[in-house]
Amino acid sequence: MSYVTTLAIIADRFDATAVVARALPDLRFKWPITSTRPYVDDAGRPTDVEGALRQKILLAWLLNQPMRLHRESRELIVRGSRIWGVFPPEGEHEADFAAAWWNLPDGIEEELEHRRSCILHTVASIQRHFLARYSSRDRQCKLGYDSSAACDPFQLGQMLKFLLSRDLLRLADYAPGREPHASRLLDLEDLLATLKQLPSYQVDKHHLNCGPRLRVDPIIDYVKAMLAANVVSLPLAEWKRRRSDVSWVAGGDAPPVFAFTRALASDQRLRYEGAMYADGMARRLFTAGEWDWTPEG
């Protein structure tokens, strides 16, 4: 794979990528299958998985392969990168990332990192929202005469216990120099699957419908559907011709507030993969500035 990628890089410098693209079938080149192995092995050593994925993205861009760029760019957004984030990778040197595929050209690197950051902020807002609701003075337990003041603190404690045990939340003190939790290698699909496991314990047998589980499930299903939308991936032709229109980087306008209503949760149009309506909704969801996950109470 690296030999073909290097050949494409050299061809790009001599404006001869079209020649290489036409020659690939004659060379019987087979695109490697995306590996499901982690970026880092059990001993903490980096594997070649991310490097191979990045080479496929670069090769698809240089040789004008839109479907492959669509698929591989989404894979990198979902799985993350060792080099993204504020803090540099531990135990590695700049020379380890000197190859061209570690800094994807034409703004692709920055765009993919930004899109992943947008999606992470969206998912993180779900747990922030419900932690705030169950720690507020507004009682979430609404069983009429059977409502209990102990129900909300119980549900808050269960949420905190679950999120802390899954390493999705950290309680930090005010000591300086605390390094924030690294999310650069957090798989987005695994993250959503984990949040679906939020426990549904009750403070007693009368509180069967209390707790955040029933309210979080449709939200996670909706976000999963939006993550599968085509707009998450990088479109090759549009990125070359009208980059400002397809980029997720915010313009001059303030980001909107996204409200998750019951009508939105039950919209049947979102069930069809690749629907233009789903693409528009996905972009509005992930590029929002704030999220209200329970606007109807």
Automatic annotation (TrEMBL):
It comes from Claviceps africana. It comes from the Eukaryota. This is Uncharacterized protein.
